[in-house]
Structures are given as C-alpha cells and as structure tokens.
Amino acid sequence: MRLDDFIEDFQRDEAAEKRRLAEEKSYEITEYLDDVEREFQQAVQGDSMFGSTAPEVFVGRSGYPDVSTGVLSPMGGDADAADFATSGDWYQQGYQIDDVLQRRTGMLNSTRSAKVDVNDVWDGFVGTQREVAIADHPVDVEVGLDGTPDIDLSLDDISTPTGPRARATNADLAENPHVPRPVEKTLEDDDWAAEGAMTYLYRRGFDVYDINTILSAGALGQGRNRKLVPTRWSITAVDDTVGKYLRGGLQHSDTVDEVSVWTNEYMGNRYWVILAPGNWEYELVEMKAPESVWNPTADDYYVGSAHEGWEGRTSYVEETAGAFYASRLAVLEHLHERDRQAKALVLREVTDEYWAPVGVWQVREGVRHAFDGEHGVAESFHAALAGLVEQLPIGLGRLRRKSNLVAGLQTSISDF
Q: What residues does the Archaeal Nre C-terminal domain cover (predicted)?
C-alpha cells in the first residue's frame, strides 16, 4: 500500500483528541476502591483468606537485599484467577486502563519481608510464593493475615499495578502445583546461568510474562546465585535478554528490501514503526503530551530517546527505561519471523488519554500488534518521515535533534 493511502486510513479522530478521560475515569476507580474493602471483608475468614491465586507474584525493590515479597490472590470467590495475571491476552481482549486497574485492585497482595537469597528455600512463605510462580496454572492457597489491608494502588511505568496490601503471617498450598517440564529442567541444573535459562524457556514457547514471574521468584540461574528479583527489574531483564538472543540470531540475515511504516494505537499511546534496509539499528523516541501521566504540568511535549547500534548497548537506558526494551523485543520478534534485519525507528506518542500507568506490557503489546495489519511503503527513510510528520505532535527539526537515526539516515545518499 502506498504510504499516503496508508496514512489517510489512520487520520486522527479530532473528537478523540479533545477527550479528557482522566477525571472521569479516576472517579470510576475511586468508587471501585470503595468496593474493594467490602470484597476483602467478605473474602477473609477470621485471620486468613482461602482462594485461588493467579500464577503471579510480586517482589518489591525498596530496602534491597531485604525486600517485600507477596502472593497475589483475587478476592472474588468466583473469580477466574488466570484473568488477573498480567498477560498479552489483555490486548486481545481489548482491556483498557480501567479494566486493568479494576483487576489489579481486585487482588490482595499478601506480603512478607524476606532476604533475596533463596537457593534452597522451598518452605515457608517464600517457598509457597516460589511454588506459585513456577506453576503453569493457578493453585489454591490459604494465607494467614495480620491486620487489615492498606487499600491503595501502587503504580509505576514498568510493573503492572498492584492493589491492596496486607501483612501475611504464613501461606500454605492447598494442592500440589503442576510444574512444566522445561521449568523443572532449569531448576535441576545448578550450573545454568539465568540468561541461558531464560532464552531456553522462550524457545520452548514460554512468553516473557511467564519467564518474568519465574525469574522474579528466584527460580532461574546458577544454584548458589539464585535470588528473588524485584518485579520491576525482572521485567526489563527478560525483555533485554530475550531481545539480545533474537538480535544475535539476525546478524547473518539479509536486510528488508523496502522502507515500511506500521502503526497502532492502544490505551492512549500511539505507535509508528519505520523499518528500513540496513544492518540492525534501533531507536525509540517517546513524545509525552502535556497533561499526560508522565508530563502532567508542562506546557509542551517532553521528548526522550534511546538508541543502539549493531553491537547493542553497554549501559542501561535511563531516558526511556523499560519501554526501550519492551518495544525492541516486539520489533525483533517481527524481524525474527521474517528472518530479516533492519534499521528500526519506533515513535511513541503518550497522549493525555493515558491517564494512569498500567505497566510496560502495554508498550510491548502495542508495538507487537502494530505488525498485525497492513503497512505503508515509502521510497526512502526520508520519504517515510516526510509522510508521517503531519501525524506527529512535534516537528521534524525537533525530532532530528533528538534522534540519531533521523539525523543520520536523513543525510544518507539513498535519500537523494
């Protein structure tokens, strides 16, 4: 499809641009939180709660190496626990911000303080947590509680939100969890480094969501080094490790043979992906609108970027943080399916419709599904940018000053 025809199909809805959902939706969540306390009171029997727990755990980072570690349990007695665990299925089901917040506030985070060293820890609260993490389906647990929950939301840019927290005195499994054979294999091998175990599980069909949970519970890596990994860190570690594995597999692949433009919009985030012929190179540019969740008081767009060349990066990305690794993984998965490499530019606009952070998973899925539909074809990278500039919230000059790929490729001889 010609690029101009492709762009015409994705012209912005002016009415949608004028919407201000933050106030409306935040009131909905406030009202929902009022219901959460009532659900908790119904779910608790004495000083314990019995129910089905999602195959997901949470590990905090404050105070490391002494951390808060938790088991996440839906409080609704008839809830399908699997629906509460962070998953790419949420995109397929069309979940929006309020859907995510309602599910996460509907889970009690039963927490205990623990040391991160867990090589041989398979009993007690941390042991139960690890069993929950490595199971391939939700398991029944009984959690002893000390006191009433803190009815609050914990939000950041990488982890999925967590809801009410209560101190746990103990947690016991009410059934034997089923552990997939590939996970058992990684646990049995005390000499297997975490990076190799992660890529092994990915090759065996485990998505990054599953691997993140297993890594966070300290179930991967060389035996003597196995530790609980704070959830925020483990999400980025898995995206980065799997991304490096995919990138390495493309080093001898042919490049794409045309400049293509892909787009998607999800949860108030707009994505444009440009793939151009050449050896692997990647950049994420984020444009955050005034009144959006990460730029609430400014009068103009905040622009951040991060870039890597053929050999990758040697330092952690600060400016775009986990979004860099999540969107890179999505692009590399697409190229891996095609057995092609490319120069890849991802442009992300965070609009003011992104009124509450729900985690970096929505970036990963937003870019993954940009490749589902049709795409536009341009004669050059320069032509692709020229075609998109009217869609972007910042001018080409500002983009060029912030982007290595835009500044470099615009002056390549193939563009003239």
A: 308-416
Contact 128, 71 (CB under 8 A): yes
Looking at the structure, tell me whether residues 210 and 273 fall in a common domain: no
User: In this structure, is residue 17 part of a structural domain?
Assistant: no
Same domain, 345 and 409: yes
Question: Of 364, 326, 360, which Cα lies nearest the Cα of 241?
Answer: 326
Pairing of strands 139-150, 165-173: antiparallel
Q: Torsions phi, psi of 237, nearest 5?
A: -60, -40
Domain count, the chain: 3
What is the pTM (predicted TM-score) of this model? 0.89
Say how far apart CA 152 and CA 388 lie, in whole Å. 41
Cα 38 from Cα 45, distance rounded (Å): 13
Both 92 and 116 in one domain: the answer is yes
Domain of residue 230 covers: 181-249
Rounded CA separation 113/167 (Å): 9
DSSP state of 224: G
Cα 107-109-110 angle, rounded to 5 deg: 130
303 with 321, same domain: the answer is yes
Residues 6+ positions from 81 with CB-CB distance below 8 Å = 51, 52, 53, 54, 55, 73, 74, 138
